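User: My collaborator sent over this chain with a note saying "see what the structure looks like." That's all I know about it. Can you take a look?
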Amino acid sequence: MTTLEQIRKRAEADAKTYGYFLTPQPDLLQMFIEGLKVNEDRYGYPSCPCRLATGNFEIDRDIICPCDYRDPDVAEYGSCYCRLYVNKAVYESQNLPEVPERRPIEKQERAYGTPITKQSPAQEIQEKPTTSATVQTQKVGIKKKLWYCKQCGYVVFREDPPYICPICKAKREMFIEIETEIKFKG
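Assistant: Without extra context I'll predict from the sequence alone. Here is the result:
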């Protein structure tokens, strides 16, 4: 079983590797570390503490901390979505920015098992809460592909290419799909 200290050290090492810092607010940092531990104990992997995980590794792959969206979020906003990882400017100012959700709606719908529609705030206020809670379970059909980074040669087998290559930091556009064909001779 992983301890809180091991999770903290892992997050600190990852932050240092990429030139990031952990959130400068000690109480918030403690909540994130505890959330990562709960998720790791529950699912067997450290899913993002600020998103709902399904317990299905293939569906949750993009939100395993550090999630696929961390690097583009830190580059654009100075912080990841949950504000666990921040850049130097945010760390020094201690002003945590608002970061919009970058995870695609399709992946959120698949994870939550329900369609997600964007509504205006006025529509949300006018709607009445439902009295019965019905959860629909749907079969998940994930079609994984081989993706190749044209810059460094990194290969990954998953539904979509990463936003940023974990090896050379190339953007998603540098990935191409590898198509394979297997022929059996009898």
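A starting point for your reply to your collaborator: The domain at 1-113 is CATH 3.90.460.10 (Ferredoxin Thioredoxin Reductase).
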